[in-house]
Amino acid sequence: MKSSIAVVVLAAGAGTRMKSSMPKVLHELAGWPMVRHVLENVGRLGPSRVVGVVAPGADNVAAAFRPHPTVVQSEPLGTGHAAKAALGLLTDHCGPVLVVFGDAPLITTTSLRRLLDAFTERKAVVGVLGFRASDPSPYGRLIVRDGELERIVESKEADAAERAVDFCNSGVMCIDGEKISHLLAALRNDNSKGEYYLTDAVAIARARGDLTIAIEGDEEEFQGINSRVELAAGEAALQRRLRKTALEAGVTMIDPSTVWLAADTELGEDVTIGPNVRFGLGVTVASNVEIAAFCDISGCRIGKGARIGPFARIRPGSDVAEDAHIGNFVELRATKMGRGAKANHLAYLGDADIGAGSNIGAGTIAVNYDGYCKHRTVVEAHAFIGSNSSLIAPVKVGMGANIAAGSVISEDVPAGALAFGRARQVIKKERAAPLRAKLGALAAAVRQARHY
Ligand code: UD1
Ligand code: CA
Hints:
- This protein is α/β, with parallel strands linked by helices.
- The protein is built from 10 helices and 35 strands.
- The mean pLDDT is about 95.
């Protein structure tokens, strides 16, 4: 029988290199705080429990862990000290304890599982995920001999020979649950940083005659994020990964490197995405949807066969049904577009329900806000809203009604009715030339007055 896994996520470091008033692990990648990525990745291992270690007063970090419990590390005295803080919530746990860092959001479940499998199979007491770093300088070095991990040397403690080693510590460590408290109790802080290094658990276990191992993974997964430069690099790596997954699932991207996806973007088969499209959180796109260049889309569902953009903005709470068209410079906010409904150019539809097959003319505005409250506009099916109309909410346009172009509609329009909401046009015959003569004379007089 496989023993259950407990996960400890360390997130109590000061994160000073971010130069931010916000804790490091709350900085976002693909729309999610770093730590949420870590929680999703470890969550897929099916752990029996996950414990977060947070700094005193970091309530927002603790909130990001919920529903998982957190413990507070009283002072940032190192990764080993942080791991020790979690032991109180692991007293009845005897399976492997996986320790991961909140600042390493790119580590995949596959790599974690490889470590756990090797750890269990080889009956190791400590197992570490390592990688060959193109620039090893910021990392702890894994010293391996005869297929076993001998010790980990932090960069600052390393001698010249150790510094030349490019096999580095990712920070992910798997420790025998029955031995973890003894190992952590033996950590000392007699090093250059005066910290309790979790990495010293390797040498301590070996001194007790226990087996310690290292598993090698891919560098791109293991980049820790300590600064804004690394945050940007992490974002780029995650975007490459999200795009690749989408392309492999049957999405066409004309210029993938310009498409920005959120961690939870769901794209159906045969979706086509033009250049420079950004997805915010909470977007689901059904199959055969075409999204043209320069669209910004968040918090919405887009139905089969819909056509979006170019230059469309769809904001949270919107729902675009099958075969609807949202054209250039059209903004939707909390708006439902019925099946086959069209808003092809230059419109703002906020808090609106647009019925199936309705046509929204260029320049239409659903006037949803009176400065205090938002109100809904309802346009029933197969209505026609002429160009440059304002629909002052709350208002309802009935099924099949027709709104004349340039109307300001502030009262409900019954089904099938034709509504005009504009001043009647006035014609004054033969008056164009006299008007121009009068304006011309006036302008000449002004010019002359300026001369004197
Ligand atoms: C650590 C490792 C190093 C490894 C590198 C990988 C140690 C001693 N060093 O170095 O071998 O190559 O990660 O990125 O483990 N934290 C706490 N409390 C503390 C200190 C840290 O919770 O007192 C947390 C941080 O929030 C962070 C993680 O532990 O999530 C790692 O800490 P950090 O200071 O970034 O360690 P590194 O110097 O990067
Ligand atoms: Ca780090």
